[in-house]
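Handout, section B. The chain below has 637 residues.
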Amino acid sequence: MDPKQEQIVTDREKYAKKRKMLLEQEKDDSDDGNSSNDEYVPYVPIKQRKEKLHSKFKRTLGAKTANRLKEEEQHSSSHDEGERLDDEAEDISIGPNAHISLLDQHSELKKKAEARKETAREKLLKEEEKILESVAEKQALMGVAELAKGIQYQDPIKTGWRPPRFILNRNEVQHNKVRKKYSIIVEGEDLPPPIPSFKEMKFPKTIVNALKKKGIVKPTPIQLQGIPAVLLGRDMIGIAFTGSGKTLVFTLPIIMFCLEQEKRLPFQRNEGPYGLIIGPSRELAKQTHEIIEHFSDSLVAEGFPAIRTGLCIGGMAVKEQLDIIKQGVHIIVATPGRLMDMLNKKMMTLDVCRYLCLDEADRMIDMGFEEDVRTIFSYFKGQRQTLLFSATMPKKIQNFARSALVKPVTVNVGRAGAANMNVTQEVEYIKQEAKVVYILECLQKTPPPVLIFAEKKQDVDAIHEYLLLKGVEAVAIHGGKDQEERSRGVTQFRRAEKDVLVATDVASKGLDFPEIKHVINYDMPEDIENYVHRIGRTGRCGKRGMATTFINKACDEAILLDLKHLLIEAKQKVPPFLLALQSESEKYLDIGGEVGCSYCGGLGHRITDCPKLEAIQSKQVQNIGKKDYLASGAADW
């Protein structure tokens, strides 16, 4: 036998003897029971150890990585076991995205962050929709009788006016080009064409000459689109910045309609009115009445029939107003308080009235006065052409107002609630005790006339008295003064007999003082809409103006945030103390949809933080179970 083979046999015999001895020893140990189960470590085959390792990998890396490792193991079975496990350990330390570049990983993380942001955005928008739905009026803005009978008008009122043929021959692309030129946004069905001159609107030469006497040569953007819409008999919502000429949009057409009615069949005693214009304040109603009288007198001077206009406002004798109505009146200009009083007492009727205009409509529909407007609607005996005008009309008010209109046309020049771009706005931080003294310094900025606004009547009286003591020619008006004193003050200021007019917000809505150089806000109003109306008394008819506003720590932060964003929108200088203000809702201002609050139109907050909505809801809770009945003079708002 070969020595090598002998050696192998010998080794095998030795191995067999050794194995036999070990087995006998193991058997003896188990029989003695001396071995501890706790110390015993059973043998685990390699295959089971692999499966255990894979299950651990699945928990840490996920199913995808575990499968990949298993596939690698199957394809690399020839590799050394130790080396393969080292490689796997290295893979584990690198992570599952080892094969993805850092740029791709960054993009993926960015997408996930955007998705989370989108979820928060959608959540906020849904919350806002619920709030807006809860405060929205469920009942349409219509007369009680119409609601009870289910009367709904499908088509607008027909009139005898038609645009010139060459205007009608233009296509919609040409019309849109004109609208784009003047930044006019129009919504509605079958849109009327814009007409760029009063002559092409077919106004009599007398009216065109009367306009020239007032320095009006061509229509403003709201007029060139709004007047054709009204002349065609369309219901309309007109929104444009203060001083843009909204008054002419509803006064000129009603004069033409009444002239047409008078020529066909003259108005008899106690007949009329054919047109009704409602304003929120006595001063505004008086101003509108004077404008209509100006054009009516021009027509009479040229041989046209007289258009009789009645003024129904509180603070004046009812007998004088009744005398005009009894003659047969074509147009009534009124404040809601006196109008409701006269309708309730049957001093006048709206049986033949077919034209209704609500000037500064948002102030009458908003703040809980919609029931009074419905009551006025109930006195109409047939379909009417309804017009609503304002410089500040949030979407909530627009949507509510549409329920009273038939196929309305919405004409919007600029954002609803935006400030007049012709006004230079300055905001100054002045301590409360230094305000009155600082007014004298502000009066040096511009020549007169100057308007000073204050929230409280006592502040108006204090400023007025101080200015008189300092030798300033000033006059004051507020709701606590009688109508004669208020009218006299406005007249003196308008005729330049007085240099300064001190007033509450009663003078901020719609009053036209064309030559105002400077508006001073003694205090910041509680509503950003009032601020827009106040500063809108200057910079009218394309002229430049200045507005100075005093603020201090007593001002509410919410209104200051609205002011900050209004200044930014108007490209005005924002003082550092306003820029420093930040709110939680500011990060959501660009979440899509309407910018700012959809309830009040403020740019510095969302509807979830609206101070105006909160104030109204608090007031409604306090008034549960009672109603405040105001006298006719006090209800003129």
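Note. Residues 33-38, 88-93, 625-637 have pLDDT under 50 and may be disordered. Compare this with the example in section A.
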